[in-house]
Amino acid sequence: MEIVDRSVNDEARRHAQDEALAALVDQYAGSLYRVAFSVLRNPTDAEDAVQEAFLRVLRHRETLGEIRDHRVWLIRIVWNIVLDRKRRAKTRPETDDVSELTRVLPATGLSAEQRAAAAQHHAYVLKCVDKLPAREREVMILSAFEELTSVEIAAVLGVTESSVRSRLFRARNLMAELLDHRRSIK
Amino acid sequence: MNPSKEDDSYRIRGVEGAEETLRLFATVPIPQGLEDRVKAGLKAPQTGRVLYWPSMPLSSRGWMKSAAARAAAAAAIVFVVAGGGWGVYSRVQPAQSPKVIAMPQRVNTPGGFSNAGAMRTPQTLNGPVLARPLTTAPKQGETGVTVVPIQKKSQSDKATARKKAPAKADPR
């Protein structure tokens, strides 16, 4: 009789965990997709990364109750996944192609020529971002997410807030140098 | 305007432009039905297993839901299968390998080296090697063979032999 009670309790607990997981998907799948896309720059790969992140959560759903900030925790999971994938993939991201960027990025109210010019500019900026050192690049990409504070970025990267700020400062200087180099060539 | 200040403002504008690009990536539109697809993907591993474990009548009592019981049952199955396989393997005699090894026939490929018609002869066995060279002839008593010295013929014997011999035909 005791075994039956325990199994019923297990079922109920599992059902509650599934409900909580579904709520997390509804709430944060979009944010995770954008984080993944900012690194992978490929819609399909980004969606796969989100899927994998939630599968990892599913495997550790017993610990869901112990997590304080689910958003930062999930972003950290998907961040590690996309960095791992990026490290393994030796090919260039699909959206470095200018025409692909024109299709993916929102450009409302622009003419066709303006969109093409904007896409070329974005492609060049992304190349410059790729030239940054890994630490500076990661901070710069995450700082573009307005919903993430420097404290949260520090939590995602597993560093202190002061190092996030110093890395961001260095990243901006390096970006300015890279863009300046382009102007001098022109 | 001071050129350095102009440069600074350009640099700042450039960095702001780059950050604007990254911000565009951070606000990229989310694909339609992303949440539904993720949820469907989460349900898939729970139902679609590689090996489906059917629910047994005893599973309602709960003992089969234990991971340890399932692992023990699986281990027992693996043990039986592996033991049976080993029993069959240990009874089968391995086929004897042939004593004569067929050498592959050499094919003279065009462009390679030819044997120039030379035939390979097997090496004969060398005889026993003597430690010291043989210098003295063996004694007669030891070998049992009587050695008769050849006597030289005299001039008169040769002449009588010519008379007795029949006349040979002239080769010319």
Fold and architecture overview:
The complex is a heterodimer of chains A (186) and B (172). Chain A contains eight helices and no strands. By secondary structure, chain A is an all-alpha fold. The relative contact order of chain A is 0.09. By secondary structure, chain B is mainly alpha-helical. Chain B has a domain at 1-49. The relative contact order of chain B is 0.02. At the A-B interface, α1, α2, α5, α6 and α8 of A face α1 and α2 of B.
Q: Of all protein chain pairs, which has the greatest interface, and how many residues does each chain bring to it?
A: A-B, 43 and 32 residues
What is the rounded distance between the termini of chain A? 82 Å
Average pLDDT of chain B, rounded to a whole number, is: 70
Largest sheet of chain A: none
Number of helices of chain B: 5
Give the SSE layout.
The complex is a heterodimer of chains A (186) and B (172).
Chain A: H1 2-40, H2 43-59, H3 70-88, H4 98-104, H5 112-131, H6 134-143, H7 150-157, H8 161-185
Chain B: H1 3-26, H2 34-47, H3 67-91, H4 140-143, H5 155-164
